[in-house]
Hints:
- There is one protein chain.
- The protein is of the alpha/beta class.
- The protein has 7 helices and 9 strands; from the N terminus they run E-E-E-H-E-E-H-E-H-H-H-E-H-E-H-E.
- A hairpin with a 2-residue loop joins strand 4 and strand 5.
- Helix 3 runs parallel beside helix 5.
- The structure holds adenosine-5'-triphosphate and magnesium ion.
- Adenosine-5'-triphosphate (ATP) binds next to helix 1.
Amino acid sequence: MSHTSRLLDVQDICFAQDGTLLLAPVSLTLNIGEFILLTGPSGSGKSTLLKIIASLLEPSGGEVIFKGQPVSSIKPESYRQQVSWCVQTPALFGDTVYDNLALPWKIRQKKVDVAVLKHWLKQVNLPETMLDKKIEQLSGGEKQRVALLRNLQFLPDVLLLDEITSALDAENKQLIHQLIAGLVKEQGVAVLWISHDSAEMSQAPRVITLPLPDGRAKNESA
Ligand SMILES: Nc1ncnc2c1ncn2[C@@H]1O[C@H](COP(=O)(O)OP(=O)(O)OP(=O)(O)O)[C@@H](O)[C@H]1O
Ligand SMILES: [Mg+2]
């Protein structure tokens, strides 16, 4: 890999609170067009690591470098457009699905192209009519897909995805996985994907497993 293909360098990142280590030091490099699946027992700090990389949480040690610059030195608005984070239980806002999908356009002061929104809905197996649906009427799996589409309206360089298919059935899990894999392959998006799903793990080109920070065995973690 040439130097210019390196997007993210996670260098010895750890997180502790009140003297307890919650994330043991971890280092990894994410390149353009790379898909890394992050797994490990519950409590190993996967979500914590993703939040640190998303610059939503300060690490206790180590540094995250994006395109050669420490993330702490990059303007948050600029970083958020390049490195986009999506979680299992997304926070949707406003009244309707449209309100949520229109936000990325409004942030960029662009006129919303409704045809594009409808196209994206179709990609994740949701009907066009979903645009006018009220947020409180959505199922958990519909919320997850609407939230993900917010991240995809304007493709970032890096997608940080934390168990985003947890509420979906097997068919829709597969659909989302293929959609993301296509963005990796065709658009060169880099993905850090947290999952416990064995089917998703078997399809991932690279898997990183985080250990429990205090060294307990996996079967003691439940
Ligand atoms: N804001 C916080 N304050 C204190 N402790 C926290 C906080 N967030 C997470 N933790 C603790 O940090 C540890 C790692 O949590 P984290 O959510 O990162 O794990 P995870 O690997 O994502 O687990 P899961 O697979 O269950 O989602 C856990 O012991 C958790 O209780
Ligand atoms: Mg988690």
